[in-house]
Amino acid sequence: MEYLIIALGSYFLGSIPFGYILTKIFLKKDIRNIGSGNIGATNALRAGNKKLGYTTLVLDITKAALPVLYVKFNFPDYIFIASLCAFFGHVFPVWLKFKGGKGVATYVGILFSINIILGLIFIISWAITFLISKYSSLSSLVASLMIPIYLTIFENYNSVFFIIMFVLIFYTHRENVKRLKNKEEIKTKIY
Asked: Which of 96, 77, 102, 99 is nearest to 7 (CA)?
């Protein structure tokens, strides 16, 4: 029963579509009709309001961090279940016909909740890649890959969960990967 409550609670918290809600309230627009059409922070930035984009980022990080931290301190055996369900909630929200964001901000919330060092590795890897390329999608993919690489090389840690997360993030970025390959990806302005 605990397993089910944790899974559902994490999913529903993760499924709150902040990018959709904020653009509807403050811009009177449907974020699904802007840019890439997904509900995440990068696309919220494309909506033309930086504050809205960064607010979406913070809220998407927080909505994943809350259930994972709760489970970490109360039911530690289920931490990866909570993490995966929060991620799936964002990517496949029941409220928007299971069409959500790409899961990067929620993954950041998950990483910082599991281990602050992992969160910092992600942020640093993302920032370095972004400074070089200006591609948010490429930065997310590289940063996601760096987590299992770091754990395998430096911590001798079973990184199966983090490999799964990289594969899921690669899947949510499959269209970006095609555009990167064809040199058609749009560079992101974050300031």
From this structure: 77
Helices 104-114 + 116-133 axis angle, to 10? 140
At what angle are helices 50-74 and 2-14 packed, to 10 degrees? Answer: 170
For the chain, give every domain's residue range. Answer: 2-94+102-181
Give the whole-angstrom CA distance, residue 171 versus residue 88.
12
User: Tokens 């060092």 correspond to what residue?
Assistant: 117
Closest listed residue to residue 87, CA positions, set 105, 73, 71: 105
Reading the block at residue 178, the tokens are 């095609």
Question: What does the chain come to in residues?
Answer: 191
Q: Under a CB-based contact definition with an 8 Å cutoff, are residues 56 and 41 in contact?
A: yes
Provide CB contacts within 8 A for 113, sequence distance 6+: 64, 65, 68, 69, 72, 83
> Is residue 54 within 8 Å of 18, Cβ to Cβ?
no
> pTM score, two decimals?
0.94
Task: Give 76-104 pLDDT, tens digit per residue.
Answer: 999 999 999 999 999 999 999 999 999 99
For 91-103, letters b (16+ CB in 10 Å) and e give: bbbeebeeebbbb
